[in-house]
Every structure is written in C-alpha cells, then in structure tokens.
C-alpha cells in the first residue's frame, strides 16, 4: 500500500493567521470593557443619545423669547403725478421680540416627549451594551472552546497516526491484514479532517471576536469563571429582576411615555395661541419723507384656528394609534425578555445536570478505551473495536468541552436576560451619566400588569433526571483478568525499551532469579546485550499475536511472535517470556526463543 504523507499541523496553522498576531486580552472583563467602549453599534447608540439631549434643548427654546434684528439700506426713486421724480437713499432698522405666552401646552408636551425620548436613547445604549457584552462573552468562550477542541483533535489525530503506523508495520512484516491497513487509513483521514474542521472553526470565531472587541484574541486568554452564584433561585425571581432592570423593557416604557406626551401635544391645535410681541423701528427717508421716523409697538396677539379641513382631528387620532403601537411594542418587549430569560435560565439548569452525565461518559469511555487497547494487544479485540472506542473517546471529550462552555455561555445569557451582565462583570462606560442624575423625578415602573413573572416549568423528564444520579459505570476488564492486561503492557514496554536502546530500562524487566538460556552466564548475557545496543542504527522490535498463559497465582507466561530488525540482523521468531510477580511487580524469570 502506498505510504500516506500528511501535513495536518501545517495546514491547520495556515488556517489560523488571526491568532498569530494577537494582542493579548488578560481577562473576559477587559475584553467586554473594550467592546462596550469601542464597538460601533454601541457608539452609534451613544451618539443617538447625545443627539437626543440636544434635541430636547431645541424644544426648550420655545419657552424663551425670540429677538430679531432687521436692518436695510437702499437707493429709491419716487414718481408722483405732477411732481418731478426724486431719488433718495432709504435706510432703517427694526428690533422685534416675540414671546410665546400660551400655546395650548404644545411646547410643554414637546419638551416632555423629548425628555422621554432621551431616556429611551439612554436605555438603548444600555441594551446595546448588554447585547454586545453577551456576544463578546460568547465569542470569548468560543475562542477558548475551539482552542480546546483543536487540541483534542490533534491528540485524536496523533493517536490514529500511531495506530496506522503500527498496522502498517505489521502489514509490511507480513503478519497483518491489508484490510486492517485500509481501515486504519480511512480513520486516519477522518481524524485529519476533524482537525482541519476545528482549526477552521477557531479561525472563524477569532474573526468574530475581532469584530466585537476590535482586537484579536490574546494567545493566553484567562478561563471564564462561574457566574451561577449571581443567579436568582428561580426563574420567576429572575423575571421580576429583569422587568425591574432590563434596559430594553425600560426603553419601551419610555417610548410609551413619549408617545403619550406627543398625543397630548396634538390637542394644542384646539387651543388659541397667545404671543407677546414688541417692535421698535427706526427709518430714514421713508416713502420719500425725509428725516428720521420711529415706530414702537407692544401688543398681545391671539391666533385661534377655527377650521383646518379636519387635519387637527385626524392628527389626534393618528397619534392615539401611535400610542397604542408603543404599548404593543412594550408588551412585545415583555414577551421577548420572558422567552429569552426562561430559555437561558432553563439551559443553565439543564446543562449543569447534563455535565454530570457527560463527565461520567468520558470517564467511563476512558477506562473502556484503555481496556480495549490492552485487549487488542493480546488479540482479544479487533482493529475495528479499537478504532471505534478511540472515536467514541474523542467524541465524549468533545461533547464535555462543548457542554462546559455552553453552560458558561448560558449563565451569561441569563444575566444578560436580566440586564445584569455588565454589573456582574463590573463593566461600565465612564462617560455615561447615572440614571439618578439624568432623571431624578422619573416615575417608577410597575411592570406587573403588562409583564407577569411567569415561565414554563421544567419538563417532567428533567425533573425525573434531577431525582436520580448517574450510576458509576465500571469499565470492562480484560477476559484474562488484570494479569493479561498487566503482562501485555509489560511486554510492550519491554520491547520498547530494547528498541530505544535503553539498557537500564530493559534490564529492569529481568528479575534476580533470571537465568539465561543455553547455559550462558549472567555476565556474558549482560555483555552481549550491551554490545548489541551499542551498534549504530535503529532497532525495531514488533510484538504480535500475543497470548497470556496463567501458570499459577503469581506466575504466568507471554507467548508472541517477535519481529526483530537491525542494520546487520533481522528475524521473526516465536518467543516465550515467563514472568513472576514479586511484591506486586512482574519480572522475567526465563526467556525462550523458538
């Protein structure tokens, strides 16, 4: 079979350019702080708030008098019957003052409306900040998540590469089946594909992190701490806190109040308007009359529209419907908050319970994986069994990592659903005024009528699971009990020590009672081993078709086919190692080659 050459790590690193030039973010709090201060979405809301402040000042100008200065100079020509035409220069100036006295409370309503509109923009800043903070937490968690998953995928690939190399060596020596090599090659390709997929996912979430924070994720992000201690004991309590403090709900409430004031303002069309007007004029050469002329006027002027084609009445009806629309949007906000928070809170509870089972799963599969590996070495498991358990172990670890990060994100979503994510992370904009300074006389909000604190109960299945605990699963032991597994492991390590030319590690496998075969002395046997290991070149020792024979309570033998390769020598022999267990340690007593 043609040898497979792979470059998984090179390709994976090629997909990660965003993570190689990163500016480190020391903690989640710092990442969220940068996002809240610099994210364009939040900045757009901030400038909308500043514009709303100025807009209210524009409306307040209606309370103050308007003063105008008009001045002019020009050349005039006067023609009258029977009189010669005259040319003269006319000049003059007028100062006028107009003070609104009564306008049916239109200005008052407009100032009040814009005050509520300003508060709406204020709460929209907070809501956008909470939203961006939640997205940043998710992006931060996803960067950590996929870094862990890339590491798991790398380990899984290397394990499959190790199995592939082992099967390829057996097939090359003629003691393995070609179909096993094909199976191992297919699973190796799948493991490499999984690694590339996780690397691509890490690239994508790093780009999402950069979009939100404005910087690339650091090479060493701090882990996300648990937020569960900041959550209320029940979803009903969480909903009450959400309706009291969620900025999206308060923005909707202020929109209703703004619409109420706007509707009131339209009633002003039915009222007269009174203005105090004063005017002082000075003119020279007016209408051909040479000299200075003055004019001073102070008057109270009333303007009362008697008929306007029904436009005013239609406007009142129009803005009454706009008020209803604002109330509907407030109710929608209630429902959206309730749905989002209920789902997030339930996810926290469900994932906390699910993590116990996912952890039990990965621990049990880890034990089964080790047992299957030992059983495969002694011929009690097929290659397909070994590859299946490796894949299940990888998927179990992957599921636990995903569940753990999903749980952390669910906690952040729950806090965000209550409008408490930023306070819990101790993040705030320094340039944003406190609500108490912005609206000292703001009317309290009573959301209980429009927003009942009710949520679906956990399903019966979840309740049932909550009453039970996952039973500890005992991993299957090898059929020849622990002796077979221990000796299979010891034989593999014995062969590996010789292949590594580590004489001390190799010699440690032989007990004090060991007697060399063919009447050779112990000193000669040791010298012969040292000479062989001192030769240049690599040594390969393959162990196949291993079986364990139990000879007594603490005596057993391993029988296997040994494939030996060196620069100057190679052979395939049947070998028998007889072992004795002394003080819990297995050591070789006899070594026989057939």
Can you give a write-up of this model?
With 594 residues, the protein is of the alpha+beta class. It has 2 domains: 8-61 and 105-265 and 311-466, Outer membrane efflux proteins (OEP); 481-593, Roll (Nuclear Transport Factor 2, Chain: A), CATH 3.10.450. Helix content is 55%, strand content 19%. The chain has 15 helices and 8 strands. It has helices at residues 8-14, 28-38, 40-60, 106-172, 178-213, 235-245, 247-266, 311-377, 383-417, 421-425, 435-438, 460-466, 481-499, 503-507, 522-534, and strands at residues 66-80, 83-102, 273-286, 289-303, 540-552, 555-565, 570-582, 585-593. The strands form 2 sheets. It has a 4-stranded antiparallel sheet, with no helix packed on it. A hairpin with a 2-residue loop joins strand 3 and strand 4. Helix 2 (28-38) crosses helix 4 and helix 4 packs antiparallel against helix 5. The longest helix is centred in the first third of the chain and has 67 residues, at 106-172. The radius of gyration is 43 Å and the shape is elongated. Residues 1-25 and 472-481 have low confidence and may be disordered.
């Amino acid at each position: 079979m043609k040898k497979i050459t792979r470059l998984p790590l090179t390709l994976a690193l090629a997909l990660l350019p965003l993570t190689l030039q990163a500016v480190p973010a020391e903690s989640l709090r710092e990442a969220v702080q940068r996002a809240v201060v610099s994210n364009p979405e939040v900045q757009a809301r901030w400038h909308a708030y500043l514009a709303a402040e100025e807009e209210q000042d524009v409306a307040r100008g209606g309370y103050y008098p308007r003063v105008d200065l008009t001045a002019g100079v020009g050349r005039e020509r006067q023609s009258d019957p029977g009189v010669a035409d005259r040319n003269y220069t006319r000049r003059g100036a007028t100062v006028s003052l107009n003070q609104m006295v009564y306008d049916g409370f239109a200005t008052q309503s407009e100032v009040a409306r814009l005050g509520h509109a300003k508060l709406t923009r204020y709460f929209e800043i907070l809501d956008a900040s909470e939203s961006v903070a939640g997205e940043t937490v998710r992006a931060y968690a996803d960067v950590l998540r996929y870094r862990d998953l890339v590491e798991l995928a790398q380990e899984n690939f290397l394990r499959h590469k190790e199995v592939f190399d082992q099967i390829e060596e057996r097939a090359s020596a003629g003691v393995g089946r070609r179909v096993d090599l094909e199976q191992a090659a297919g699973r190796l390709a799948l493991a490499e594909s999984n690694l590339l997929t996780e690397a691509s996912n890490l690239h994508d979430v790093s780009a999402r992190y950069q979009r939100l924070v404005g910087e690339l994720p650091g090479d060493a992000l701090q882990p996300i701490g648990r937020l569960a201690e900041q959550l209320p004991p029940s979803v009903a309590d969480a909903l009450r806190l959400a309706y009291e403090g969620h900025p999206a709900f308060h923005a909707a409430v202020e929109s209703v109040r703004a619409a109420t004031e706007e509707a009131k303002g339209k009633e002003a069309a039915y009222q007269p308007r009174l203005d105090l007007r004063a005017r002082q004029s000075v003119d020279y050469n007016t209408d051909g009359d040479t000299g200075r002329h003055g004019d001073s006027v102070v008057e109270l002027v009333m303007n009362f529209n008697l008929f306007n084609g029904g436009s005013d009445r239609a406007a009142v009806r129009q803005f009454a419907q706009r008020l209803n629309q604002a109330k509907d949007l407030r109710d929608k906000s209630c429902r959206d908050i309730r749905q989002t928070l209920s789902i997030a809170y339930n996810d926290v509870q469900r994932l906390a319970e699910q993590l116990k089972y996912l952890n039990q799963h990965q621990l049990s599969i880890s034990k089964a994986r080790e047992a299957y590996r030992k059983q495969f070495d002694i011929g009690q498991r097929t290659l397909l069994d070994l590859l299946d358990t490796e894949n299940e172990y990888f998927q179990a670890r992957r599921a636990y990592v995903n569940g753990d990060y999903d749980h952390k994100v669910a906690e952040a979503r729950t806090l965000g659903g209550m409008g408490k994510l930023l306070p819990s992370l101790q993040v705030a904009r320094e340039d944003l005024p406190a609500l108490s300074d912005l609206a000292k006389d703001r009317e309290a909000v009573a959301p209980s009528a429009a927003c009942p604190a009710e949520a679906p109960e956990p399903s019966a299945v979840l309740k049932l699971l909550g009453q039970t605990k996952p039973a500890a699963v005992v991993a299957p032991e090898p059929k020849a009990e622990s002796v077979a597994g221990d000796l299979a492991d010891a034989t593999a390590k014995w062969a590996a020590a010789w292949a590594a030319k580590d004489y001390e590690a190799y010699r440690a496998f032989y007990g004090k009672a060991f007697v060399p075969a063919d009447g050779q002395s112990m000193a000669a046997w040791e010298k012969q081993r040292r000479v062989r290991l001192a030769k240049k070149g690599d040594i390969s020792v393959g162990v196949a078709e291993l079986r364990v024979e139990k000879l007594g309570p603490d005596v057993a033998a391993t029988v296997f086919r040994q494939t030996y390769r060196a620069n100057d020598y190679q052979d395939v022999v049947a070998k028998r190692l007889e072992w004795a267990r002394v003080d819990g340690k297995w050591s070789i007593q006899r070594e026989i080659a057939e």
